[in-house]
Structure formats: C-alpha cells, structure tokens
Amino acid sequence: MKTTWTWIGELGEVEAGLRELADELKLKFELGGEGKAGGAEAIGRGEDKAGAEAIVGSEAADDRAAREAGGHSRGDGTTEAERAVTVRVERGGEGLAAGYADGRAWIRYERKHQFFRAFSLLLEKGVDGPAWELAEQQRIGTVGPMFDLSRNGVLTLDAWRSLLRRMALMGLNSVMLYMEDTYEIPGEPYFGYMRGRYSAEELRAIDDYADLFGIEAFPSIQTLAHLEEFLKWEPVKGYKDTKGALLAQDDRVLELVERMIERATAPFRSRKIHIGMDEAEEVGRGKHLDLHGFNGRFPIIAGHLQAVLDIVRRRGLSPMMWSDMFLKLASANGAEHFDRNTVIPEEMARQIPSDVDMVYWDYNHFEPEHYEAQLGKHRPLGCRVVFAGGVWVFNTFGVNYGLSLAATEAALLACKAEGVDEVYATMWGDDGMESNPFIALLGLQYYAEQAYCDGKPEWSRVEARTLACTGTEAAAFLLLNGLDETPGAEPGNRKQTNPSKFLLYQDVLLGLFDRQIAGLELDAHYAELEAEIAASRRPGAALDPLFEVPERLCGVLRWKSQAGLRLKAAYDADDRAELERLASELLPRIAEAVRALREAHRRQWLSMFKPFGWEVLDIRYGGVLTRLDTAALRLRDYLDGRAARLEELEQERLPYSTVNLEQGGSLGWCSYYYRMASPNVFYHVQNPF
C-alpha cells in the first residue's frame, strides 16, 4: 500500500534533510495543510553525477520504496492502494521517540540528528497495522565514522551524499575526514598533487550536506608524520626530517602547519580539528639529527605539539590528537602501544597540555577489560579521551566483520562503562583501498545500535535496523567475511588473514604464499562463496552493485587460488599432460575472470571515488594479466622444447610467515602489494629518511 506522508509540527531545522531522504526513498511527501506534495528539491547538489548512479544514486526500486512506505508492490511499478498517514513532529524532552496508532504517527526528538533516526524507526516499524511506540536514549553522545581519504580512495560528492543519508537514518552525528594531503593549500602545488585533493568548495559542500542531518563534519589532518605522499617531492625537501615526518623546530615548517590548519578548517562549521601526530617513531632520526644532534623523541614531539597547539588556540579551535606515541614512549621498550604494564610518568604528563583531546585507537582486542585498562592509562594526562575503533576494510577486498564486530562490542561496552562519550569507526584504506566504505555499512550500523542502548544490542535488532537504513540484509554484508575467512583461518578471522588480496596478486609461477595454503581446499571455498553471493543479490536495489566485485573476485580465486600449487606439482611430477591442460585451459580461464573483475572494479571505483588512484589498481590488475601471459608462454616453451627447465618452478616454496604456520588460525597477512607480487626489487630505497 503506497503511503502519502503528511508532516505537521516543528519541522523547521529538519525539513531540508527530510526532503532529501524522501527523495532518496521515493516517498510521497506533503507539509500539513499546505498541499505541497512532491519529492525533495536538489539541495546542495553538485555537478559530479556522471557515471555515479550505479552505487550512489537514489533507491530506485519500486518494491523497496513501497515496502518502506508501508505498501506492497505489484511488480509493475504500481501499488495495490494508496493511503495517508499524518506525522506530528515535536522537539523536546530527552532522547528520541517514535510511534504509530490509528493512521497517525509521531516523532519527538532532543537533538537534530535524532529526528532522522526516529524517522527510520517509522520506516522500520511501519505506519499501518498494530499501534507501537519506541523511545531511545543516546548512550554515546557523539558517534560516527572516520573515512580515509588519503590512500587513493577520495570520495566524490555524490558518494558523500549517499553515505550521509544512510548515516542520518542510523542516527550518527559526526564524521571525520582523514586528509593527509588531499585538500588544497595555496602556494603548495605539490600538496595533494594528482591525488584527487578536495577544493575548499567541495569540502564546504560536504559540510553543508552533513549539516542538513545534524551531522558534524570536521577535518583530521597530519601535522607531524604520515606525510610521505607530500614529502616525496623534491621541491618540498626543505620541510622534511625523514621520508614521512616534518622537520620539527623549523620556522618554515610551522608556517606550513599554520596554513594546513587554516585551509583544512575554513570550509567547516565545526571548530574541531584532529591534528594527527600518530606513529611518529621516525621523528628526529633524519635531517633533525643532522641539524640538532640526538634528542629523545618525546621532547621533540612535545615541543612540536606545543607549537601546533599555539596555532590552534589562536584560531579558537578544539583540537584532538592520536595518543599512541605517548603510550609507546612510556612503555618499557619505548615502542609498545598496548603494554599492560605501561604507566605514563608524572614528568611526561606535566609536559602534555590538557586542552587537547586524546584519541585512543585500538582495533583488534576482544575483552572489555583490555579497553578499560587502556583508557585508565590515559588518566594521568588529564585530557578528555575519545575512542577510535575500526571497521576492517584495511588491506582486503571485503570487510573482516568477524574481527570488527567482536572488537567493537568489547570496546564500546568499555567506553560506556568508563564514560567515554565520543567514538569513531575508522575505515583505513591502507595500500591502495581495494575495498570501500559502502560495504562497511553494517559495521557503522553496529556502532549506531551500540550508541543507542545500555548494554549490547540484540543481533536481531541490528539486522532489522540494517535493512531499514541500508536496504540490504545484514546477512548479505556478512557473506563478505568469506573472502578472507577461508579454510585454515580461525573462525571470526581474529588473526587477520587477507587471502582475498594476496592470492589475487601473487604470481602463479613464484607462489610466495603457496606454502601457507598447501592442503586447503580454497578453490572449492571460493566457488561456493561465489554462488552464495550471487544468490543473495537483489538486482535493482541501490547497493546491489557493491556485491559484483566480491562475486567476480570469487570467480577469479576459484581458479587462481591453488593454480601455483597445481603448476608446481605437475612440474615436479613431469606430468606434461597436466602442464598442457594448465597452460591451454586454466591460465586463459583465470585471465578471462581477471578481466571481468577489473572491469567491475573500475565501474565501482568510478561510481564512488575520484579517478585519481584507480591507476594503481589498473597497474596491479595489468600485472596479474601480464604475468599469467608470461606463465603460459613459459609453459609452452618448456613443453615445446624451447626451454630445458623452468627455474621458477624448481625453487622450493618457503613459508611466507613462519609465525602463522606455527600458531595456526591464519593463512598469513601481508600489508603491501609489492610484497605479494614479487620477492624482487620494485624500487630501490637509497635512504629511508
């Protein structure tokens, strides 16, 4: 039954966002008594829509719109009947509430973003049938994602709008933009050069759209380390201490940092800024050492922090920073982030200003007690503590939901127990971003449900909310676990193996990971997963195209994952018939599947990310294809007598990771493409600093 929604009451601050959602969901929308029917106006929309409809366009499927509006599709674009429901909106009280009875619905909310979660409750529970009422209190006051926009995947404005609409339905109210060098600084042409950097106008458009839904957007930048992509350019070498760290105690660097802070914060309403400063182990070991001699890292970092905070304070900003370096430097060996025995000494704590929030990041522990202990280690600093967990899209084509959900549960239970009122779900794009934030939406949903309940949410509740907010079943998202949770991996993949990536990129003639996977039926696993993903798909649903890449990847790995083992076994046995079959049938079949995967991945990338960065994946796919071609040539030369031997296949296969083989529960982990593809030289590092 198709529903006309008539809205009355206090709509002022939420009307524009509501119209955007009505347009997305194809809901018939009226303002009470005024007869202004229709969908949303194009509020804050840019001109970057070409080619983006596959992933980030509107929810066009008639059956979904009818279902979410309380109706039933006939399958021909029409519905059985039409009805009207009036929704009264009131701002006040604590938390949020929504309900329905006798053709009337209501929403009450305390904070702007809570209205949109309440609206999603109407979509979820329905506005026909039995009466219902639901009230919620927000137990974590600030919650949202951190999107990595620095590892090649720079989201387009349309992708941002699509993500923000779904975040609004979830009830999230903050988003952090992680930008190492992907924003503009006048006078610094190499800053973000050819990297898809955002203009000030683009950042302002993101902020404007987020504000429609009461979502606070703010920048997360780097003011000390993690600046390799900028500092690699010869014209800016004067800013450099080491390959990734700025030169502390340098006036030119501080002037650069001031311009960074100015340009990063100017487009945003928020006064928040994340100034980074994590993983700065190399600080003071390069040019700084030449100029100033040896200094301990803590005094260098503490002095630089004071200089950066002086800039921040002059601008009236509210800073936060990663806390890991202080915990590492306070540990027994000066390097351990999670040492149980670490105590930050009073002398160190006195030198760390208390007017900077400390962001404690932790992505892979599973006991609330661990997080409670780590939070306690921050208390001597006297700073407000923010928590950052992770949804594991790092170094994979999918999402490690087993690890992500288990670690999130433990972490957020601890945060609520310890009174931590601001949390973020990081989505790092390490090593080129083969994955994407859209397939991590189930993880974001779990953060939202944790934020709106006292203990942990029932999984059935998470499932219902995921369907209401994303239009996709939680079970479909969870299938992506299988890309890496293969035979040989611990259930839940808590030991972080990523075969979906290293089995695609490893060379079939060299087989760097073949010892890791010997005896495992990976071909059969990926064939079964391919069929499961295909069966779960819903053509026409807005997010359905997300699952084409995982499906196509399985279509490659069902043939490629054990190809190297088969080549080696046939060669060692001098089975020329099998070598002939592998050369003439299997390798061409793999190449055909890789071409199909690349085309699907390219469509997906260009539907959500700027084109910069795709060339990296193009080169990687090209490498796989050309090496398959060379493998077929080498086999043919051997079989035809032009090559007396194949030296590549005569080499003993050694373990890639002896730790993984000895301990079990993991096929291995690799963070870098160049280490997956070849043991030989990709580039020559003359000076690591």
TrEMBL record:
Single GO BP term: carbohydrate metabolic process
Alphabetized GO MF terms:
beta-N-acetylhexosaminidase activity
Give the compositionally biased regions (Basic and acidic residues): 61-82
Any idea where the Glycoside hydrolase family 20 catalytic domain is?
A: 194-330
Q: Which residues form the Glycoside Hydrolase 20C C-terminal domain?
A: 476-662
Check the record and name the Gene3D superfamilies matching this protein: Glycosidases, N-acetyl-b-d-glucoasminidase
SUPFAM superfamilies for this protein: (Trans)glycosidases
What Pfam families does the entry give? Glyco_H_20C_C, Glyco_hydro_20
* Spans annotated as Disordered: 59-82
Keywords attached to this entry:
Hydrolase
Source organism superkingdom: Bacteria
Q: What is this protein called?
A: Glycosyl hydrolase-related protein
The organism named in the record is: Paenibacillus pasadenensis
